Each structure stands twice: as structure tokens, then as C-alpha cells.
Amino acid sequence: MADLPPIPPAKDPALTTEIPMPVITEELNAGPSNKEVLIGAGALLALAIVFFLIRNAYVNYLVASMKRSPNNAGLAGWGLFGCLFFASAIGCLALVSKSLLTLMTILPLAAISLICLILCIVISSKK
After folding, report:
1. Which of 9, 55, 56, 118 has its CA 20 to 30 A from that of 65?
2. CB neighbour list of residue 9: distance below 8 Å, 6 or more residues apart
3. CA-to-CA distance for 51 and 74, rounded, in angstroms?
4. Closest Cα partner for 111 from 88, 83, 91, 92?
């Protein structure tokens, strides 16, 4: 008698031990699209222009009204610009993609923003 091939087991749903694998789509692992990055960069650029105008107004206020030296006023203005810019960078990251909002991106930006704010306050109080 010839060797017969083995008989495959019956496909009884109660006897199967296969665990269905979850379907992983590429959208879950993908980063922000080019359109989202472009929107975020455009928003950050528009905010940078507005913050530069605010910086100039603040420097003029410190020199004219508060009688601060132009060098100290200019440095305090750049501190204010840096504080506003890096704080808005966190907001633009949130606008672009929630997956980019991790402690590794928020903490350095928030720390730089806080340092710029402290620099602005300390330098603007000097005559």
C-alpha cells in the first residue's frame, strides 16, 4: 500500500487557535502630509512677521517712554520675539500633527521660550 498524504485537520471554529491579526493601516504610522506641513510653516511665517512688528513696537516703547538704552531695549525686544516665536512653534506643531506633540519636542521649545521671556524681563528692567 502506498503512503497517503496526511489528512488536513478539519476547520472547526471551536477548535481553531488562530488569533486574528489587527489590520494596521499605513495612515496610523504616517506623519503629517505635505499639505499639513505647508499650512503649519505658513502659519509660523505669518506669526513671525507679526511678532517682528510687535518686537519693533516694544523696542520703541522701551526707548521712548521707559527711557531705556537702545541696546538694552533691542535685546529685550529680541527676547520677546523669541518667547512668542517658540511658543507659537508649539502651537503650529499641534496644528500640523498631534503625533509630533511629544515631550521630546515640547520641552526644548518651551524651555527656550521661557528663557527668552526671562531674558526679556531682566534686560528690559535695566536702564
Report:
1. 118
2. 15
3. 14
4. 83
Residue of higher predicted confidence among 77 and 7: 77
Q: What is the C-alpha to C-alpha distance for residues 93 and 24, in angstroms, rounded to an integer?
A: 25
Q: Could you tell me if residue 42 is inside a domain?
A: yes
The radius of gyration computed from the CA coordinates of the chain, to the nearest angstrom, equals 29
* Percentages of the chain per state (helix, strand, coil), in multiples of 5: 70, 0, 30
Q: Is 114 contained in some domain?
A: yes
More confident residue, 97 or 124: 124
Cell of 4: 497517503
pTM of the model: 0.75
Domain that holds residue 79: 33-125
| Cα separation, 87 vs 85, whole angstroms | 5
Distance between CA atoms of residues 11 and 88, nearest Å = 59
| Dist CA 69 CA 49 (whole Å) | 25
